[in-house]
Amino acid sequence: MKYSLIFFLFLLSMLVVPTITAQNATDEIQYKITGRMLMDGGIYLKNPVDFGNGTEFNDLRIGMKATYRNWKMKLEMGYAGNKAAIKDAFATYSYKKHSIQVGQFYEPFSLDMLCSTFDLRFNQSPGVVLALTNSRRMGVAYSYNAKHYYLCGGLFTDNDLSNLKNVSQGYAIDTRLVYRPVYEKGKLIHLGVAATRRTPDGVLPEDGNKDTFTYKSVGVSTIDNRTLVVANVDNAVSQFKIGTELLIYYHKFFLQSEYIRTHVNRQHNFRDYVAQGAYIQCSWLLLGHHYLYDEEVACPGRPEGKSLELCARFNYLTLNDSSAGIEGGRQKDFSVGLNYYLNKHIAIKLNYSYFLPGANVKVIDKNDFSVLQGRFQFIF
């Protein structure tokens, strides 16, 4: 109820933005209303465990961007899963090739996590990205962006703006380096590496999960939002994550791949825990000529202009570590998709995924399944 009220007040405030813009035109500040809607539907074709078919708003947002001299500011609220939450809320100061960002935003880790949901090739990010990366966090980050190099580093707390618990927070130190030996229109080679060191999130004593890291994934769809693989790593001191990135554009061809590995240091003579996974996906433009690239955060964008895109992806994730005594589950899945971008604002997507559970996926045991999903989306 509290967030619904906040969301309503935020929507109301958007109605007066044009007036504020006109009044502040002489102050050189410029405002822009932003929003997006991602509406999904899914049918489970092979469904041995009675997954539920249906529709949902995967992402529904409204927000505002503002610029003032060397400053850029962004505030967005979203509604999904029957709840409203603050998404991006930050300010960025830029000078030549340097910038400093303060507020709530994504940590600089993982190509696919940094990619806008509007630009994702499939309805759901790969399972390895869902399980082994973080969502938005509060913090501060510095970045340096040249034609062939991108560097970003930051310090983040564990809580986002929606978590108001009065406890001492954990922290994370992140760094990401990207090298672009080829970077021109229609051609790109992007090589990246990122690393994160994080302490456990702060919790209240009654929560019962102090010094615990949780890694989980819903698999390939949120239409039936069951968690398929999950590992709760207790007695944790810290975690260290490393990820590698590969991104290639060649006119109509697109290839993206990542490998992510997480190592958790544990106390009280508990064995350390390791989880890892990777994915590779590629696309070909049946209609259209080039792919866009978001240079500000060094991540892939959608095809340019009116386009028809054929996509394929393979994902692998294991949360099993028998030496640590933790069996969170292992998954493999294949996906193919067809995406039609009518223009830069509206797109229709269709994809099919086949999920193969590995050892210790308890929710569905050893039953593989498939799902056909569609999406209608717009952004402004």
UniProtKB/TrEMBL annotation:
InterPro entries, per database record:
Porin_dom_sf, Porin_O/P
Keyword line: Signal
Q: Does the keyword Signal apply?
A: yes
Keyword hit for Kinase: no
Q: Name one Pfam family in it.
A: Porin_O_P
What residue range is the signal peptide? 1-22
Indicate what this protein is called per its UniProt record.
OprO/OprP family phosphate-selective porin
Organism, by scientific name, is Bacteroides faecis
Q: Species lineage, top-down?
A: Bacteria, Pseudomonadati, Bacteroidota, Bacteroidia, Bacteroidales
